[in-house]
What we know:
Elements: H1 13-31, E1 35-38, E2 40-51, E3 53-55, H2 56-62, H3 69-76, E4 80-82, E5 88-90, E6 96-98, E7 104-106, E8 111-116, E9 119-124, E10 130-132, E11 138-143, E12 150-155, E13 160-164, E14 184-188, H4 194-205, H5 233-239, H6 248-255, H7 259-271, H8 281-284, E15 285-290, E16 293-300, E17 303-304, E18 306-314, E19 320-324, E20 329-338, E21 341-348, E22 363-369, H9 388-394, H10 409-417, H11 419-422, H12 427-438
Parallel strand pairs: 6-10
Antiparallel strand pairs: 1-21, 2-12, 2-13, 2-20, 3-7, 4-5, 5-6, 7-8, 8-9, 10-11, 11-12, 14-18, 15-16, 16-17, 18-19, 21-22
Helix pairs in contact: 4-7, 10-12
Amino acid sequence: MGVVVTIIADNYYGYSKKEIKTQISYSANLFGLVEEEHSGGAIAYPRGVMGDIVDGVSFSKKHEDKFSFEDVKTLLGDRIEVMPEYYAVDKKYPNIIYIPESAYINTNTNSITWKHNGKEQKLKLNPKKKYVHPTGNKFTLEKHPAIPLWRIVNTMAEGIFCHKPCTVSGGGKSEISKSMLNAITYSAFNIRDIDEDFKKADEIIEYNYAKRWANYDPTLPPSRSFLSKGRTLGSAVKLLTPSDKNTDEYNAFVSNIPVHIRSLVLFVKRLYRQDHAELNWKDCMSVEFINGKKGTGLLYHNTRVVGSYVRIGFNENGNWLLNKLRSDFSASIKVQTEDDISASITLPRERFNNMSPKFQNKSLKVVANCESYLFQRPDEAIVRGYDKNAERDIVSDNTYLTNYELLKKKDAIEIFEDTINFDKYTQPVKDLITSIIESPQ
């Protein structure tokens, strides 16, 4: 046993942290088989935009009908309150609603419906609530960030632990736990010629996809149509992606689809539903008329269609470089698990029980976070308005801040009077600065 004492004659928080890190590293070496890692990590839960309708039966089929509402009742026991209509409310978190496996979610009717005891049961959709399916998928009603469009977003039941080991300073260990939302921007989706583009899109939508398989079997049931209610948006994306399971002819067909046409048909798939009965998809889509001529901005029921793009950097002229995202993309939800100081050990697989059969690694690393509090250095907050979460946190009460210059009222006035740059801040920062200027002190 021993004690290490270090005296630091400086008020910089980071010096203290680095010294503690060194002591943990030293003790790990003495312990043996364990190492201290300068690492970062988070559990990421994948998400996806489901559109305006979700059929719970389809999710159950994907999991071979292994999970039911009765299983949910058995598993959670007295932690939930089961309602007579055959759904349940979490007692600790009443905004969490557990729905049966046959639940049908429809934003057009603002409802969730299912059958119980021979009667249709119904819940109203609420954006403040999370609806958990027996498969573990979590559905939420969310508004599009850029246009007045509501859609169902699915969060996967199982997350992925992302661990960035042995990282040098500036290597991105904090970034791994940050949301991508700040890097996503939205702008109008444009086509080139509505008549020609709709004609090409129709060829893809009406294509006979049953014969795409390399081992095509004519005795099997016909393949679902592109716009079938039974085909998800994810399935449509997969349909337009080359695969070694398809014929060479079909792979050539999908590879030669122009990028804007591929995006167009996926927008049609996401927005249009065959519930519209006799209404053709082309009756729902149009373009703006500018100076009496057809424009290129796509509209769906006279609502602007926007694409989502991720910013990946700058070009030599300082302009953003953008990549188009899938129309069903939604940034993962992340739970930060480590940020700087972790301890780890690598062990053979046979030392573990209940491992997922998906992963056949012969050895596995066990990681433990060594910090009571996880701190973030909001590097991107130097760009006004970019890191929305950081700006909200910085101006919130009960936030621990270190290494920041103390600003006074005269500084707030100077920031405010720089009108163009002041307007770039998010609203919480604007409100704080304005409140300081208007305060009597």
